[in-house]
Amino acid sequence: MTHVFIIASESLRSKGDIDCPDVAQVAGDLDPLLLEARVLIVYANGLDLQRTLLTCRVLAPDRVVVVADPDEAQVASDASGRLDLDIQIISPEHFDAEKVIALAGDLGEHAFRAIVSSVDEHVIQCIRLSGGLTVGDQVQPATSGSGRHFDLTSFETRGDEVCISLASVQHAIKSGEVLCRVGELPEVSNQFKAEIVWLSTNDGFEGRRYDIEIGNQHCGATVSGLKHRYDPYSYEHLSARKIGIGDCVSVTLGLRQEIVFDTVTRSRSMATFILRDHYSSDIVAMGVLSHSLRRARNVHRQELDIQRADRELLNNHEGAVVWFTGLSGSGKSTVANGVEKELHRQGVRTYVLDGDNVRHGLNKDLGFTDADRIENIRRVAEVARLMVDAGLVVLTSFISPFRSERDLARQLFDEGEFFEVYVNVPLTVAEERDPKGLYRKARAGEIPNFTGIDSDYEAPVSPELEVRTNELLLPECIQAVFELLKANSIFMTR
Hints:
Elements: E1 4-7, H1 10-15, E2 24-27, E3 39-43, H2 49-59, E4 63-67, H3 70-83, E5 87-90, H4 97-102, E6 113-120, E7 123-130, E8 138-141, E9 150-158, E10 161-166, E11 178-181, E12 187-198, E13 204-205, E14 209-214, E15 217-230, E16 237-238, E17 242-243, E18 248-261, E19 272-277, E20 283-292, H5 295-298, H6 308-315, E21 320-325, H7 332-345, E22 350-354, H8 355-358, H9 370-389, E23 393-397, H10 403-410, E24 418-423, H11 427-433, H12 438-443, E25 465-467, H13 474-487
Parallel strand pairs: 1-2, 1-3, 3-4, 4-5, 21-23, 21-24, 22-23, 24-25
Antiparallel strand pairs: 6-7, 6-11, 7-10, 8-9, 8-11, 9-10, 12-18, 12-20, 13-17, 14-15, 14-19, 15-16, 15-18, 19-20
């Protein structure tokens, strides 16, 4: 694995005017390969040096070397103090790549970490992430605490592939576990503070789901908080509602499961990560974990005697959520209101969460930017989950324009509890209806970020039900939803 990277401008990279020994690799300043770097050499010529050095600080390598003329050297020196980043500055005429890279040899070895790929009795095949072993070492799975120690009798390495022979395996070591030396245990958590560099041309938002990869571990992750964005030139902390390409941001991350992690000084592979778009799998960010959050260890669920099944038994029906989504004016609220009346007539306990109504209280602090829309849906989904736990059939009526947030809402519920109903009409029909005059105002520029006009609506791909209110009568739409719930045994008709 290459641990020395040279950051250079696109112009220098295309010309090939870079002294790069075989042990190093040349990259741009937004290349996720930089996460592997323990030494970063920055060719200042042609770079936005202040911004690049901010990226270096986020990536937290062991050593940063800047190759710069006198003017650029002054910029690097100023940045070093303001970023609290130790930078070695060398003029181009005195720069010797071989000598600088040789300095990487005295950085010291990181703790041994390896992902188990297969187990055959006492022989373990692994992918080494960091560090090394010697015969006689004791190893253990990272999540085993003080138990399950194994004596190492022999090992073979081919690149990052390691074949380990253990004296005895009294308990199973499972594929996918992280192995470490005894006494060098990493930590385990699912909530973190982290520093990230945003790499995507698509903006990032608080509350949106992504997929995280860290040390060959993969799971869903949510940017649960945007703490601040760093100004790329003054390095001041700025408030942030969204993240754009090249932004360096301090965030909190919530993961769907616990993972094994380290500090970047103990094992770089177990502290650095990439975020991927949940749908396209494109890399959207790279980052470094700072530390786990205390609340991840101190917050526990309180067990209560009365459970959801008891409430459903009392109600004589199951809890569920019907998520109506569609353009403004499509008829969501009208259909939801009609469905509730019919369910009420059947003795089903219900509640309608309407997009306009919740903005008078629960969400009155939110506007209509993309970031606010995401938070709006997150809050409503959590409220709906509580109501379903109370045994109610919840009918939500929200434009909810983004597929990722609707899917995030769905993931809060078990299979067969969440029913997405796409209330579908052409935009022209919705504009003709325009019951609140909103489209007219949006076309006149009086309402910014209006869905369908200057903010996108992402139509559902596979909803449980689609109703076209411009083709069906209202009673037909209501009956279609009613039959959907009945077919899934949410209630029994009287």
